[in-house]
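Data availability (excerpt). The following record was deposited with the supplementary files.
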Amino acid sequence: MATRVVVAGAGGRMGARIISQITSGEDMTLSGALEREGFSGLGDDAGQAAGVGPLGVLFTSDASSLEGDVIISFAIPEASLAHARLSAEKGMGIVIGTTGFSPAESEALVRIGETIPCVHAPNMSVGVNAAFRLIEEAARLLGDGYDVEVLETHHNQKIDAPSGTAVRMGEILARALGRDYPGDAVFHREGETGKRPKKAIGMQTLRGGDVAGEHTVYFFGQGERIEITHRATTRDNFAAGATRAARWVIGQKPGVYDMSDVLGI
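Predicted structure:
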C-alpha cells in the first residue's frame, strides 16, 4: 500500500519539488497539500501547480481535514511546530527540513517527539550528510594545527543566516576539535580585529541570486589548505532526501531523528 504523504508548504518551491518526487514512483501518494491562510492558490490543484499534472488534491489551509501517514514540512519554525503538533494529534510521522529554530522551539519539538517519530534535519541531501562525515574526520585528523572557516552561499530569498547546514557544520567541527559552538564561532569581522583566535570557527555568509545552496569548509594550514565543498544545483536532491526520510520514519519509535539515522551513518 502506498504511503500517504501530506506536504506542508506545498505551494512553495520546495513543496513543488517534493510533490514531483512523491509522484515519480509508485510507493507514495500525495494525500494533502497544506498552505497558509491567505495563500493565493487555495483551492487550486497542487499537482497542476507543481507541474506534474492534476492530482485531485487541492491546496487547503484547513489542517484538520488532512489525513495521511506522514507530513513533510519545509516552512518557518513556528509553522513547522504547528505541523508537528498536527502530526501528534493525528498519530502521523513527520519530516521537517526547516532551519532557524530557537532553543525553545527545539525543546518543544523534542517534547512532541516523545509521542511520534520525527526526522528533523537542516539538510536532507544525501551528499551534504556525507560531507558532514568528511569534515568530522578531517577535523579529527588535522586537529588544532589548521584554522577552520565555514563559508555558505544561498539565494537572496533565504531568511536565516548562517544556514542550518552551516550551523550543523560548525557544531560538528566544534565537537571534533573540542571547542564550543557558538561560543568559539566568529560571525562577523570588520575593522581592526586583531590576530585570529586559535580556536575560532569562522562562519561567513553570502546571499544572492538563485543559488540553491553551497557550503565549503576550509582547513588552512601552513603552506597548504584543504577544502571540502558541497554544491547543490537544484532542489531535487533535498526533495529526494525528504521523501527518503518519509519512507524511513513510518513505523519508527517516537523520537527526534536526523538524516544520519535515515542513512545509517
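Summary of structural features: The longest strand covers residues 147-154.
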